[in-house]
Amino acid sequence: MKRIDLQPGAVLLLGVLLFLLRPLELLTLFLAAGVHELGHLLMLSLLGVPVYGFTLTMTGPVLNCAPVSLWYETILSALAGPAAGLLLWVLTGSQWLLLGEISLFLSLLNLLPVLPLDGGRALMAFLSFLFGETAAEKFTSRIGAVLCGGMLFGSLLAAAEGYGITFAVFAAWMAVLACQAHGIVVK
Question: Are 128 and 71 contacting, i.e. CB atoms less than 8 angstroms apart?
Answer without folding.
Answer: yes
